[in-house]
Amino acid sequence: MENIQSAANGEASEYEGRVDVLSPEDLSEVLAAGTKEVHEKAENTQFVKDFLRGRIRKELFKLGAVALYYTYSAMEEEIERNREHPYFAPLYFPQELHRREALARDLEFFYGPGWRSVVSCSPATQAYVDRIHKVGREDPVLLVAHAYTRYMGDLSGGQVLKKVAQRAMKLPPTGEGLEFYTFDNIHSAKSFKQHYRSRMNELELDAETKKKIVAEAVRAFGFNMQVFDELDEIGRSLPEEVMDAGLPVHGEGGDRNKCPYFAAKTAATGGTEYACQVAMAVLRHPTGQVLFAAWVAFMAGFAAWYLM
């Protein structure tokens, strides 16, 4: 373990500038080829396309961070459990890669100090979490697929999403709310990714095991798409004007009824409480107040005409 950790801290910089001759049988190449189609599908989900266009609704972004927190908590718990497993130990880079604590800081920024008592794991995220725990307990080599899918994506497209989110939601330039995307212990993302893939390729795996890892990576992309679809569905359940008007969310007091996920479910069942939330939110918005005043004036005029 000590040699692995010292390599994690020092070898990444030494790796910069080296050029590996890759073979189609290398795990990194097999994974890239085997997940190409599903990767493109994930990038073309409505939620991701809207994100890249800068059409980010802050409440959905926050719920996405909650989903990531539960996902990384499960993955990093299983990584810790299996950090000495021969098929995962070479990929153990906690200081460089682990995201759980960064996500915790993001959630504190968005929801306040009591965030742990007011967030919950959504159904799509729970399915993802359950699979990660099952893999960690029963077939740890498949953790390679989950780590590859998440961490390599974070170091690639995740950096683009960070800039889009910061600009679209006018988040602080100092990085609060976006620590998930910040890897303080990685000085060159390109170099580190090369180093990580090199470690993957050095794993002594037979062809059948590589196929299993690819299949699990495809499955991991599928779980991510289900989370995206779930967020997109919640977004359709919460009208734009309500969210822009400041629909209450998790935070002060920890009231679940203020959670956008809970409100979406209530709306789907036709709950009167949701209708009240919508009305109150609209009335808090300046445009809503103007429209309400106009409606009152119209009704008063109509009543005066009717009584003449």
TrEMBL record:
This is heme oxygenase (biliverdin-producing). GO terms for molecular function: heme binding; heme oxygenase (decyclizing) activity; metal ion binding. Keywords: Heme, Iron, Membrane, Metal-binding, Oxidoreductase, Repeat, Transmembrane, Transmembrane helix. Its EC number is 1.14.14.18. InterPro entries: Haem_Oase (IPR002051), Haem_Oase-like (IPR016053), Haem_Oase-like_multi-hlx (IPR016084), Haem_oxygenase_CS (IPR018207). Signal peptide: none annotated. The chain crosses the membrane at residues 290-307. It comes from the Eukaryota. Belongs to the heme oxygenase family. One of its GO terms (biological process) is heme catabolic process. SUPFAM superfamilies: Heme oxygenase-like.
